[in-house]
Write a structure and sequence with these properties.
Low-confidence stretches of chain A: 456-470
Structural class of chain B: alpha+beta
CATH class of the domain at 221-465 in chain A: Mainly Alpha
CATH topology of the domain at 221-465 in chain A: Growth Hormone, Chain: A
Oligomer: heterodimer
Radius of gyration of chain B: 15 Å
Strand content of chain B: 25-35%
Largest sheet of chain B: 6 strands, antiparallel
CATH architecture of the domain at 221-465 in chain A: Up-down Bundle
Distance between the termini of chain B: 42 Å
Number of helices of chain B: 5
Radius of gyration of chain A: 38 Å
CATH architecture of the domain at 32-111 in chain B: Sandwich
Order of helices and strands of chain B: HHHEEEEEEHH
């Protein structure tokens, strides 16, 4: 039975507890609320008259507005479940209080008529706040993907509770002849029941998304709403949600007026007839709502996605409004046959969309938009929407209705009901179309929002908005920092001046350079002066500091920066530095003079350098660098012997000098450059890559492989260099790159970088093959999860157990990243998407996983994404559950058992894993000859360095 | 110890446990094996620290001087490590470490670690993650 229901309602076995309890909470609360709603309305109209209704509505709105302010404040301090518990308890106490007051009014004839209004306003106050908040509590117990699937089933508790409550009320009133005043306590009992259920939830389940803020600093309620407003104006999603809510409320109120006052009033002028019609309508409409809620809502939301689902409701409303408009307009123009029947059908249709579809479609889809908002901001933002935007929209709709239905002296004059009918319908039509237009960008804002949540930056980035003159504030801050006694503040200010090239600070930076004794500040000052727009001022400061400076660490930096200004002639001053004892100062002075257009004795500079190279010196690499910077080809023979020097630094300088001396003519030295790519030194590789750009490489795998392999380097600069080189010769290397991407063994990073180069150039057939390979990788990923289960259950070799676990996890991770790479490119996404989704999926937090899955389900590529969503949506506790998901995803049986587990591990062909297996074997069986096993594995198993033994 | 055994030991040390096996393999290449007899003092309180010790076997007593006397603070066992901060700065040791019984260690020098982290930033990033996680726990413990 549970399996049948689970399949029917898309509930996983692990989710049953949460779904069942929250469903019960809503059902029990809705049961009591249906009593209170009917009793409240009946007693209010009966005792205070219908004309008090508008005032009570205003009172409710005001109370909710104030309540929202306080609510927003507490959502930051207290957990969502605790707030909901408080609401339930408060409502229960409130109903007890009202019940006592009603008792005295009825039995003692106390004339406390205001109690009826008090009950009506009080009940709706709590009802609205609970309705606002309960969604957040439910959402915090499920991931973004789960809540999308389960929200409809849980919310089905509301109509069921409503039906049961309504039916019970009718029976209690008509069969058992209770007075309405006696039944207020039912609300109290139901709230108490909901409270107890919530405590059970607290004991049995833990939330996956914390809605409480971790921060200890809290603002007052007004500041909270101000914060919400700031988020709103900085978050596209919140802007569209607010606009959408406003349009929805206006449309909703106008439609309600249309069917309640115009249609039904004409059709059922008698109050009893009208009440009977409503009772019948409620039963059928609630049943239809229940059906839609259970079987359609989640399928629509999962199928279309959250963003698209939010378009449906305004689309339905516009359809209803169009029908009403056409009907009333035609009715006004011509006599329509059986117009009463059409009017009734239109009334029912409109009311159903306005009332039931709101609960079945709009509310769940709209609540899911909060997936894209950080959970700790849910409360504040919901309070803002419901406490500010909602009442504002009600006022707009109310004012419009007063205008349009007013007397002859009003703005529209006296309009008959037909004219009101089509005018209001026309307005609703316009509002609904606007609603659709708002829902479209809201859709894309939602997708961006969920994506942003994976990095937790989307909102934070814009959270602190400065007001007033930004530039003057920045100027003041920088001036203050430059005067700070803390050197790091000064350095930070200098960095900012340099990056923003703020010429205004040239004097302050120059003076600081001349006065400071701190090396780091001097260095920053020189770099900043050189970066600022060229003027006599910054040059003069640099020259002046050259005159005064003694520090050999600072002098080269000044010389290097001054060499940018070719129009300055300080050659005589620099010549003196050629005799400086510091090698770096000497080299920079040489280069300054050699490159200066008005310096003539360049030969002497060359001789000085050659002399230094000829002498044994610790600064050989520096002199070789200097010689290379002269760019004289006839010195190549001098540099060549140093290419095989024992010191890495010397080798690198000689190699760089060699390349500089070739002056771009590097084609004959291609082999040497390719060979350098295999050097252990990354600088050497980087220099070689840059030099290879000057060469013409052939369509040979031997030439391109060293470059392709560098796409997987840990150093980003190397990756970018090699990628740039490949991009420049894409026409030649494309076939080799294509061959590479179809290899299953290709490391993740290499695959990603290669695809970023060639994906758009692949044929449809090749793209299909890529997806096919990715599916195979997914199969491996799931398979390794099964192996991990077997591995955990066996625990044969405790010594290597943890390491083998880690290796298997890493292999699985690589297969998953392979799939995500293909999804990224098939969905036309970028590296950021790949990184965020992979971080989210590999995170241990279920909330992050849920957000990542939600982002994936919104990506363009559907098939592989759905497979991943299905896998992560399962709780894989045992081998059986893995076998089940394996069969579900690939329609194949998972065959690996404990017996062939060892063989499977060997087949994974992983060096360290194989070394572990040999290691286990060595311990259990006689020693095997290691000479016959592959080198990489052997290296892991053979003693390399002797143990150092020291006695005490 | 063969390289694989070093990897097995390093993988069990919390300081390295968040690193990838490939990175742990790199670290194993700079980890040397050292054995000491009972009573050997690895370092004294106030010494300049430049080595990280990972206990492979045996026990190490951590002692702190107070009013001229050494007080026993803790005992470290297999897979515990000491002197991890020495990998990042050259501050003085905050306590004395002495072997209780014969001990075997894997030792990593700061210079080697710096060079490795420079070559492979992922390793440095892995350390940052571990240190942050420890800092979080400390903050949480203080709060509690």
């Amino acid at each position: 039975m549970a399996r049948f229901l689970g399949n029917l309602l898309s509930i996983k076995p692990s989710e049953w507890d949460g779904v069942f309890y929250f469903f019960l909470v809503l059902l029990v609360f809705s049961f009591g609320a249906s009593f209170a709603r009917s009793i409240g309305m009946t007693l209010l109209v009966q005792n205070l008259g219908g004309n008090t209704l508008p005032f009570t509505f205003i009172l409710i709105d005001l109370a909710v507005m104030v309540g929202s302010l306080i609510y927003a404040d507490y959502t930051k301090k207290v957990s969502g479940a605790a707030i909901l518990s408080f609401f339930f308890l408060s409502t229960a106490l409130f109903s007890v209080l009202v019940q006592i007051l009603f008792f005295f009014i009825v039995s003692k004839n106390w004339g406390l008529q205001w109690v009826y209004a008090f009950f009506f306003v009080g009940f709706f106050f709590f009802y609205i706040l609970i309705s606002i908040h309960v969604g957040s509590v439910i959402a915090s117990y499920f991931t973004a993907v789960q809540v999308k699937r389960l929200t409809a089933v849980i919310n089905a508790g509301i109509p069921i509770g409503g039906i049961l409550g309504g039916t019970s009320l009718i029976i209690l009133l008509n069969v058992f002849h209770f007075q309405p005043q006696q039944l207020v306590i039912v609300l109290g009992w139901s709230c108490l029941g909901a409270f107890i259920l919530l405590q059970t939830i607290n004991m049995r389940l833990s939330p996956v998304r914390a809605s409480k803020s971790e921060s200890k600093t809290h603002k007052n309620p007004f500041k909270e709403l101000l914060t919400a407003f700031r988020y709103l104006i900085n978050s596209k999603l919140m802007i569209f949600m607010s606009l959408g809510l406003m349009l929805f409320v206006i449309g909703n109120k106008l439609l309600e007026y249309e069917y309640q006052t115009i249609i039904y009033f004409q059709l059922f002028p008698n109050a009893t007839q009208r009440a009977t019609f409503f009772a019948i309508y409620e039963v059928f409409a609630n049943l239809a709502w229940l059906f839609i809620q259970l079987f359609l809502t989640s399928r629509i939301i999962v199928g279309l996605g959250v963003g698209a689902s939010n378009i449906l409701y305004p689309a339905l409303t516009s359809f209803a409004a169009l029908a009403l408009f056409l009907f009333f307009y035609l009715k006004n123009q011509i006599e329509l046959p059986s117009s009463e029947l059409i009017m009734l059908a239109l009334g029912i249709f409109t009311q159903f969309i306005n009332q039931e579809m709101r609960g079945a479609l709009r509310t769940p889809a709209n609540n899911l938009l909060f997936n894209a908002i950080p959970p700790n901001l849910w409360g504040t933002n919901k309070a803002f929407l419901n406490g500010i935007v909602f009442p504002l929209a009600t006022v707009i709709a109310g004012s419009f209705l007063i205008l349009i239905t007013g007397k002859e002296d009003s703005f529209f004059g006296a309009l008959d009901q037909e004219k009101q009918g089509y005018l209001i319908a026309l307005c609703v039509l316009l509002v609904s179309i606007l609603g659709i237009l708002v829902a479209l960008p809201q859709w894309s804002a939602y997708n961006q929002g969920v994506f942003g949540l994976l990095n937790r930056e989307l909102f934070g980035r814009h959270a602190d908005i400065r007001s007033g003159s930004r530039s003057s504030a920045l100027k003041n801050v920088l001036e203050e920092k430059l005067r700070s006694p803390d050197q790091y503040h000064i350095i930070a200010a200098l960095e900012m001046i340099r990056v923003l090239r703020l010429g205004y600070f040239v004097d302050q930076v120059g003076e600081l350079l001349l006065s400071t004794q701190t090396l780091q500040i001097k260095e920053r000052c020189i770099n900043t002066l050189a970066a600022l727009p060229q003027s006599n001022l910054n040059i003069n400061y640099l020259i002046e500091s050259l005159k005064r400076e003694q520090d050999p660490q600072v002098l080269p930096l000044i010389l290097k920066n001054l060499s940018q200004f070719k129009n300055v002639n300080i050659n005589q001053q620099v010549e003196k530095l050629l005799t400086h004892s510091n090698a770096t100062v000497f080299i920079e002075a040489c280069l300054y003079l050699y490159n200066h257009p008005s310096y003539e004795d360049k030969f002497s500079i060359e001789q000085k350098l050659l002399k230094r190279i000829a002498q044994p010196d610790n600064h050989l690499s520096l002199y070789l660098y200097g010689l290379g910077e002269l760019r004289q080809k006839h010195y190549v023979s001098l540099v060549l012997p140093f290419l095989d020097h024992a010191q890495t630094e010397v080798r690198l300088s000689a190699f760089t000098a060699f390349i500089r001396m070739q002056q771009g003519q590097l084609q004959p030295h291609k082999t040497r450059l390719l060979h350098a790519l295999e050097s252990p030194d990354k600088e050497m590789k980087s220099v070689a890559l840059r030099a290879l750009k000057e060469c013409q490489l052939e369509e040979s795998i031997d030439e391109w492989m060293p470059i392709i392999q560098l796409l997987g380097a840990k150093d980003r600069a190397l990756v970018n260099e090699s990628k740039e080189l490949l991009r420049l010769s894409l026409t030649i290397c494309k076939p080799i790159l294509i061959t590479q991407i179809f290899s299953q063994e290709l490391p993740v990073q290499q695959r990603f970088e290669i695809l970023s180069l060639i994906y758009s150039k692949l044929t449809e057939e090749q793209k299909k093959q890529l997806r096919h390979n990715a599916e195979y990788a997914l199969k491996k990923f799931v398979g390794i999860h099964g192996i991990l289960r077997i591995h955990h259950s066996l625990k044969h070799h405790p010594k290597v157990h943890d390491l083998v676990t880690k290796i298997l996890q890493e292999i699985a991770e690589n297969h998953l990243l392979h799939v995500l790479t293909v999804i990224t490119f098939a969905s036309e996404k970028n590296l950021e998407f790949f990184q965020r989704v992979s971080r989210g999926l590999l995170s241990l937090s279920r909330a992050n996983q849920g957000n990542a899955l939600e982002v994936l389900s919104n990506a363009g590529e559907k098939y592989l994404s759905d497979q991943i969503v299905k896998f992560f949506d399962e709780r894989l506790n045992d081998l059986e559950s893995i076998g089940r998901i394996y069969h579900l995803l690939f329609a194949e049986t998972f065959t690996i058992t404990e017996q062939d587990y060892y063989l499977y591990l060997l087949n994974l062909n992983h060096d360290m894993l194989n070394a572990c297996l040999f290691y286990i074997e060595q311990e259990t069986k006689p020693v095997r000859d290691l000479e016959h096993i592959p080198k990489k594995i052997r290296q892991l198993l053979m003693e390399t360095s002797p143990k150092v033994e020291i006695s005490s | 110890m063969i390289p694989l055994e070093k990897i097995i030991v390093l993988n069990k040390v919390p300081l390295f446990s968040m690193l990838k096996t490939e990175d742990i393999h790199m670290i194993s290449t700079i980890a040397s094996e050292e054995a000491y007899e009972d009573g050997h003092t690895l370092f004294y309180e106030g010494d300049i620290g430049d080595r990280l010790f990972i206990v492979v076997s045996g026990e190490v007593m951590i002692l702190k001087s107070k009013e001229g006397e050494e007080r026993h603070l803790a005992t470290l066992k297999e897979n515990d490590f000491l002197g991890e901060l020495a990998l990042f700065d050259a501050e003085t040791r905050t306590a004395t470490a002495r072997c209780r019984g014969p001990c075997m260690f894997l030792v990593i020098e700061r210079n080697d670690m710096e060079q490795l982290a420079h070559e492979y930033p992922a390793i440095a990033f892995g350390f940052i993650k571990v240190l942050i996680s420890r800092m979080r726990n400390m903050v949480l413990n203080n709060k509690n």
